[in-house]
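Reopening this one. Same input as before:
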Amino acid sequence: MQSLVHLDAGTYTIEASDFPYGPNSWALGIQATLRPDDGGESITFSPSKYGPKTLPAGTFDTNIFVNTIGDIDVLITPRLYKID
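Same output, byte for byte:
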């Protein structure tokens, strides 16, 4: 599933409802990238890097990924919070 949204500049963090393998696992999780309006370097949120980041204004692209074989019975609801 992919979602795009335009963000104003500020400090943001990502949280999710359930990381069954922990927030640092690459088995499943959230991967997101901000592409700045000014064409600057993209900024990525990924496992072990979900914490607060100061972002310029830009387009935020979010993906929920699953890197495993078999059934996954989990509900992931990513939330992006603006801290300031």
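So the earlier flakiness isn't reproducible anymore. For the record, The chain has a mean pLDDT of 83.
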